[in-house]
Amino acid sequence: MHVGLVGSVHNKAREAAINLTNQNTHIETAMSKHSDQACKAYRTCLNASIKCTKFLLRQGLAFRGHDESATSGNRGNYLEPLQFLTDNDDKVREVMMENAPGNLKLLAPCIQKEIVNSCALETLDAIMDGLKDRFFSILVDEARDASVKEQMAMVLHYVDDKEHLIETFVGIQHVTDTTSSSLKDAIDTFFSRNGLSLSKLRGQGYDGASNMRGELNGLKTKILREQPCAYYVHCFTHQIQLALVTVSKKNIDIASFFVTANSVVNHAGASCKRHDLLRGQLQEKLVIAFENDCLITGRGLNQETSLKCAGDTRWNSHNGTVISIISMFSSVVHVLQMVINDNPNDSAGEANKLMREIHTFEFVFHLFLMKAILGLTNDLLQALQRKDQEIVNAMALVKSCKEKLHWMRNNGFDALVDEVSSFCEKHHIDVPNVEEAFILPGRSRRNAPIKTNRHHYRVELFIYIIDEQITGLEDLFNELLSLAQFYPQDFSNEDRLALED
């Protein structure tokens, strides 16, 4: 009577006591054991995905493939390395790909993006940990991406504990427009999100756009109002580009010359056929010169080259354009002539127009004039882009370049004319008498100004352009001089005396 039936209180209590003494059969134990196994499997699967993601991020490779189906021969940069890990690691094989649960494969594009974003946040946190409470500078520029959206890129510039200069890219921020207010709001948002203080900002560097360096409402002015110690530095490579190329283009003749030069490069290399013709002509020229023992041989000489197009934001590209046209002039003429001899069309008409323009003394004079000027400033342009460049050395390079231009201005015209005349005679181009009256193309002799060819080429072109270069270098030197007061420790007594002089 005390024990009762099967469902009595006594039987229930006795069953509970037996279960209590046998914990291995408890449901919580079974669930806990299953949970540990699932966690290990998930961690193994996640680590494999992270390894593939980190590899692709380091190499800057795309994740998605053209065809990621199971029957595809190449499933893309993300799935193929993951399959490789699965095939070569037994632990990964047990939990990945076909052995993984249907909802836990970690292959979806959205999961790939989550892992990438997590890596980006971890990288940014590591950069901020390295920055700590140090003083720093910012470098900012904006550009339009392939989706026609304005993006602002930011770089932090600081010195670490080992006194190494660190320049690290910290991200891209979408901005609605490129006004100084939008850029300032984007910088404030980045600072607040990453715990940076404007009080630690000691420098700001941009290009020469008006929205960046404007004295009234430019980005640098808005930041200086909040932090007067954030000294502004105009990007020196942008400035030397402005001084050497943009200033030259203020002369209408030089501006027209670069338009023609770019048209020649684009037209002569417009197709693979023309590019191959250029290459073949250059090889034939080298073979003939070698057979006639007229070719200087040596390591690094006579390398295969091509026409180079000039770009306003690619340093030294204008110098490369000029040199490539001079070295491949006869090959370019041959290709243009072949285009003209083909069936008449718009391309043939353009080639005929370019042929007439480059077979003039004026074009060749501009060609060699810019080669001489840009050749003198090439070393300066390269030196200003070095990360370890010192202000004293940069000022010395600017001063040396200016002295070379002064010497060229006073002594280099006759040598330049001789070089141009020799090139023209070699390529059957008429050379005008420098003492005859200069006639501007398209003008009648009756209304032409009274001046000689020598006056036009020497005073209006040669001296004018060199003077503009010298003025630009003087402005650059003055900016370096004003910047030097912030780094007095870099100057010896001799440097200070030289600066005072």
Shape: elongated
How big a fraction of the residues is strand? 5-15%
Number of helices: 19
Give the SSE string: HHHHHEEEHEHHEHHHHHHHHHHH
What does this molecule look like?
- The protein is α/β, with parallel strands linked by helices and 501 residues long.
- 59% of the residues lie in helices and 8% in strands.
- The protein is built from 19 helices and five strands.
- The chain has a five-stranded mixed beta sheet with strand order 3-2-1-4-5.
- It is elongated.
- About 1% of the residues have low confidence.
Summarize the structure.
The protein is 59% helix and 8% strand. It has 501 residues and is of the alpha/beta class.
Indicate the topology.
Blueprint lengths: L8 H13 L5 H33 L19 H10 L1 H6 L13 H23 L4 E9 L5 E10 L5 E10 L5 H15 L6 E6 L3 H4 L5 H8 L4 E4 L1 H11 L5 H17 L3 H20 L25 H11 L1 H13 L4 H13 L2 H23 L7 H21 L1 H14 L26 H32 L8 H8 L1
Parallel strand pairs: 1-4, 4-5
Antiparallel strand pairs: 1-2, 2-3
Name a few traits of the molecule.
single chain; alpha/beta; five-stranded mixed sheet; elongated; 19 helices; 501 residues
